Structure formats: structure tokens, C-alpha cells
């Protein structure tokens, strides 16, 4: 398959600026050329983050006129979304003209690397309003009440979902906790601000039928899993007749307590790794921030091996997982021989870090004999 030609430098610079500087996780899915035998590609599929999912927009430049502004083609499901037309519902001619003059398209400057960034953020803001309007037109008393009581919070997104095999649903995405989670972790490595969202999906009920309960789920930025997993949090019960404005205070109290515990658990993991040093020596490698992993060198007679410790965010409630790796034995692919994960070491979360380390050391003194035999059997003669 012949690869697509590269993008012109002016367009490539604008894409790079968007992907690097946006606080939203925009993605490029596909790049291609609009004409045969062209030196450059000039169009691509942009994945626009919205409601914890993505919508696809086709961005179409003209490689022969790279100084011109691009066209944007929205998905077929959003045929009523027409933000680039001269007027939208409820706007008079003067308001429409003023809106277009504020748009990035009005004074497009292809040499400014931020132009595409500004354009797609403007359009995404209009798309958020468009989806709110769609949901507001749904004839559902409960939804209208939810919207009237919850939209005073900033950052809420909502969309109407439907498909050929399911009834219509409305999804709310509510950002939680007005605090900077990055500042809770010392020497935090996260480049982007971590977020936690409540996703609430309301099935639309038919008239004269029981009101179904919403589907509730916590969603977080992927990197937050280094600190704790929102999947481990037990959500407060949703009482019949409750609305989101009533539900959120209890949920945010629960999350605040969980974050405090998660930060405390970092200290517990660090103390455990430090307690291993008197028995195993200084670690060869260790996670200095979240203290989730550590590797030590162990020697018994002439046999030398590594001990890899993996600690969950629930440590010390959950015991560590150990993997042994020989530094002297290699399999047929040339990889060092490693043990299966060991979950059977003696453990109690009530032990002090020193006792935990001593018990594991005594366990490995016996376990290494069997591991050495395992290595000899794994080596191909």
C-alpha cells in the first residue's frame, strides 16, 4: 500500500500546535490527499473529545492554496449543526454578522500556528451549545428539571444518544471536585490536569410508564490510576426520585476522602520499600513518586537473581506481587527466565513495614531454591 504524502509545512505546524497546546485530548485519525499524484496531503479526520467520547470531523485544506482556511465537514448524525452558515436560530442579521466577525475564519492567517487551535475550540464550544439545545427540546419532565438545577455548574456536557438497536438516552458528563489533583502528589509528573467525571445516562421513559433509574459511572483521566482507581470507589446509592444536584455533594465527599487515603497510601508504600533495603540492599530501581514498583538484587551462593515488587494502589490492604528474574539463565528467545507472579507470600496489612519485609525475605530464602530449579528446567540445552 502506497503511503499518503506528507502535509504542507504550514498545515503540519497548525496540527502540531493543536495537539501540543490544547488541554483537550484531540487526536488525528487519518491523513490523506484530495487529489491524485499530489506532493502533499491536505485533509484529515479530527477526533474531537466530547462527553467522554469522540466525534469525527473532516478537516479539508487545499494543498494548492495552503494559505486558505480549511472547510470542516461534520458527521452525518449532526446534519442540523451548521455553525459556519451566516445565521443560526434566534439570531438577527446584526448578531449573525458580529458572530462571524469574531470567528477565526474571518481573519484567517495561515502563518499563525494557533489558527486551527482557535477554530476547532470555537466550533467545539458551539457544538456543546448545539447538543444542549437538542436535549432541551426532548419532551421529558425529569430531564428538564435536571437541566434547570445542574447547569449552573461549569463544564457540564450533555448529549442525546440513539441507535438502531436501542431507545434514546441522554448522557450528562459532570466534572467533579473543584481542586487541582496534580498538587496533591509531591513532584507530580502529570503534564495535564487530572479530572474526575460523573457520567449519568438517563433512559428516556415513555408516557405513563415507570421512570427508569439512571446509569451512573465514575470516569477519570487515565494517568490518575497511578494514584487510585475510580472503579474501586463504592458509589452512594441513587434514591428513587433523586436528582443530580442532590446526589453530587455526597459523592464529592466520598471522593475527597478517597483522595486523602490514596495520598496516605503513597507514604505507606514508600515506608515498605525502605524497610526492604536492610534485607535486600538498596533497590536497583524504584518508583520515587507513587512507589508502585521496586526491584532488588538477591544472591544465594552462586545464584544471582532479581526480585520485582509490584504494589497496588490499595496497598497494604492488598499484598504485593513478586516476580523473580534470573540474571544467569535465558530461554530460547534470549530473554531472562522469570517466575510466574507470586501471590502466596505471608502477608497481613496489620504488620509493620519492618515485619512485612522480614517475612517476605524469609519466604524468598526458601522460594529461591525452587526458582533455581525452575530456571534450569527452562534453559534449552
TrEMBL record:
Protein name: BRISC and BRCA1-A complex member 2
Main localization category: cytoplasm
Family from the record: Belongs to the BABAM2 family.
Example of a GO cellular component annotation carried by this entry: cytoplasm
Subcellular location: Cytoplasm; Nucleus
Pfam families named in the record: BRE (PF06113)
Keywords: Apoptosis, Cell cycle, Cell division, Chromatin regulator, Cytoplasm, DNA damage, DNA repair, Mitosis, Nucleus, Repeat, Ubl conjugation pathway
Provenance organism: Platanthera zijinensis
A Gene Ontology BP annotation from the UniProt entry: double-strand break repair
Domain of life: Eukaryota
Source organism phylogeny: Eukaryota, Viridiplantae, Streptophyta, Embryophyta, Tracheophyta
Amino acid at each position: 500500500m502506497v503511503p499518503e504524502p506528507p502535509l504542507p509545512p504550514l498545515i503540519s505546524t497548525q496540527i502540531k500546535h493543536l495537539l501540543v497546546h490544547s488541554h483537550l485530548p484531540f487526536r488525528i485519525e487519518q491523513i490523506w490527499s484530495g487529489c491524485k499524484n499530489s506532493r502533499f496531503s491536505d485533509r484529515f479526520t479530527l477526533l474531537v473529545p466530547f462527553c467522554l467520547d469522540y466525534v469525527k470531523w473532516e478537516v479539508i485544506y487545499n494543498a494548492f492554496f495552503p494559505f486558505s482556511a480549511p472547510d470542516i465537514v461534520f458527521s452525518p448524525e449532526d446534519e442540523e449543526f451548521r455553525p459556519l452558515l451566516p445565521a443560526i436560530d434566534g439570531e438577527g442579521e446584526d448578531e449573525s454578522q458580529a458572530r462571524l466577525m469574531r470567528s477565526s475564519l474571518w481573519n484567517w492567517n495561515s502563518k499563525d500556528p494557533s489558527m486551527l487551535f482557535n477554530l476547532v475550540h470555537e466550533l467545539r464550544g458551539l457544538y456543546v451549545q448545539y447538543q444542549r439545545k437538542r436535549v432541551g427540546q426532548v419532551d421529558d419532565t425529569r430531564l428538564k428539571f435536571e437541566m434547570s438545577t445542574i447547569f449552573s455548574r461549569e463544564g457540564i456536557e450533555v448529549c442525546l444518544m440513539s441507535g438502531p438497536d436501542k431507545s434514546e438516552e441522554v448522557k450528562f458528563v459532570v466534572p467533579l471536585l473543584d481542586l487541582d489533583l496534580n498538587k496533591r502528589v509531591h513532584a507530580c509528573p502529570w503534564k495535564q490536569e487530572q479530572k474526575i467525571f460523573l457520567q449519568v445516562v438517563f433512559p428516556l421513559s415513555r408516557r405513563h410508564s415507570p421512570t427508569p433509574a439512571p446509569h451512573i459511572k465514575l470516569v477519570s483521566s487515565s494517568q490518575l490510576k497511578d494514584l487510585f482507581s475510580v472503579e474501586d470507589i463504592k458509589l452512594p446509592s441513587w434514591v428513587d426520585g433523586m436528582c443530580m444536584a442532590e446526589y453530587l455533594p455526597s459523592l464529592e465527599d466520598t471522593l475527597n476522602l478517597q483522595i486523602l487515603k490514596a495520598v496516605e497510601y503513597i507514604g505507606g508504600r514508600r515506608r515498605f520499600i525502605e524497610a526492604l533495603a536492610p534485607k535486600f540492599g538498596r533497590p536497583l530501581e524504584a518508583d520515587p513518586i507513587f512507589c508502585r514498583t521496586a526491584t532488588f538484587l538477591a544472591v544465594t551462593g552462586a545464584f544471582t537473581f532479581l526480585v520485582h515488587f509490584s504494589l497496588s494502589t490499595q496497598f497494604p490492604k492488598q499484598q504485593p506481587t513478586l516476580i523473580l528474574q534470573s540474571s544467569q539463565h535465558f530461554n530460547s528467545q534470549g530473554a531472562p527466565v522469570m517466575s510466574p507472579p507470586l501471590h502466596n507470600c505471608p502477608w497481613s496489612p496489620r504488620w509493620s513495614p519492618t515485619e512485612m519485609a522480614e517475612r517476605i525475605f524469609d519466604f524468598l530464602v526458601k522460594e529461591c531454591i525452587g526458582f533455581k530449579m525452575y530456571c534450569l528446567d527452562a534453559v534449552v540445552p
